[in-house]
Amino acid sequence: MDKWICMLCGYIYDPEVGDPDGGVAPGTAFEDLPEGWVCPVCGASRDSFEKVK
Question: Cα–Cα distance between 52 and 25 in angstroms, integer?
Answer without folding.
Answer: 20
